[in-house]
Specification:
Rossmann fold; 14 strands; Arc Repressor Mutant, subunit A; 4-stranded antiparallel sheet; elongated; 5-stranded parallel sheet; alpha/beta
Length: 249
Amino acid sequence: MRPSHTGKVTTDSTSRMLYRMHLLLIEDNNDLAIELADFLESHGHTIDAAADGVTGLHLAVSNDYDAIVLDLMLPGLDGVEVCRQLRSDAGRWTPVIMLTARDTLEDRLAGFEQGADDYLVKPFSLRELLARLTALERRGSQNLPGNILQVEDLELNMNSLEVQRAGQPLTVSPTGLKILKVLMQAAPSVVRRERIERVLWGDEPPDGEALRVHIHNLRTIIDKPFDTSLLHTVRGIGYRLTATNVLPS
């Protein structure tokens, strides 16, 4: 899709960002989506786009984004429902900024209650959108010093990709690191095996034994030398990281 200006946003000059974000844009207005994508790409960012809620939710769950731009009014699933399923069902906490033409308190509260991080009313400045996205991405990457994911005494440094448990360095394969990241981001929630397979192999996973082998190898590294097991199989569903493998009733 290529640009066709709609007048729904105003363009302001802004300096180029010094780092790149991978962003998901979920917007059903094609002209506006083109304008937003072109502006963000012109500042060095990578954009994936969806024109409906179902496709947008699938992309948001299947990929790792720095932030999501989510329109409130969408075909299939509206933005509030997309956000709810992303947070509650998928356990993903990617920063979300919600776009809407409706500036009522009820609309804003509905979005925030389902996990939206920010809210921008149309028409808006492209420069303001970029500034808010940058702020959300920075906020999301500063949960722990050095961007560290932690479950009990297991830590994954997202900058250096170093893994340690109880202060002991562990050597994890690139595939194991991908699995570990997904599990740690969702912990203590269960991650379905289909989601892990999509992260590793996209829409063409190998035979069903491949993931099982990788999970076994990862468990050997992060659990076998220690007294407490963290990586648990939830039979027929997937896997989870937690010290106590008791599912909520």
